[in-house]
Amino acid sequence: MDYHGYSDIFRNTSCWLNYWKPIVENIGSSYSKIVWEPENEPTTDCSNSPSSCPSAPCSSDSSCVTYLGSAYQQWINQTRSTGDTHWIVVQSICSYGCSLCPDGTGDCPGAVDGYPIVTDPAGRIFLSIHSYMSYSYYSNSWNTTTATAVANGYYQAVLSATTKYGWPALNTEGGADPLCNPCATPPPDTKLSGSAGYTTVTLSFIQTLTNLYDANTPTRISWVWWPAGDWTDTTTSPLGTLDCNSSPQGWGCQLKSLPATT
Q: How far is CA 189 from CA 136, 142, 149, 209, in A?
């Protein structure tokens, strides 16, 4: 259960906590299998947030990660005080954008410092970072070799984070969107445009990252790719990237992965 609040966790922290409390209390006890995702992509940027956007409590990445950890800890404490023991996703600040990596995302060693530090009496925390390959940054080296390097960068950052913080990973968003729509000059290898679209290079990127996560030992690294839903502007199908009747097929229909296990 995911909340797309963006800057709310920083700029409206009390409101964000109060909003979530009755949701957990009224829904949590009804389902044995819920993963709470209190914030989709934490950021101080107000561009995707409601009109009420107070002053940011932090400015640098390091201070914002510290604040983010405090906010998440309040959410965890509030949720556990209700008796809820479901898994909780804690999101990296680099899922929206950070200065810890040259391209502003999380595909370099420095991204390990973008995860907030939390504790949980239930011991059920997932670390997450959203993973894309941006054409705006990589346009001068837009090829499958770069795609492999970017995928490996994310993979190594996630491995380092799970070791450093001691929590498993569930990366709750990522995909083949080149994050360039509309573009002044679209990627030359575009197959489908829009939020559920892809290019030859980005399909190579997400396939490589999926392979790395699926083959990780001793356990797989969990992932959920994006998007499926009738709001996408790529096709008219509610299946989004899993639309196998589009021409060409959605990239989700072409992606090779291991089946989910319990």
A: 14, 9, 18, 19
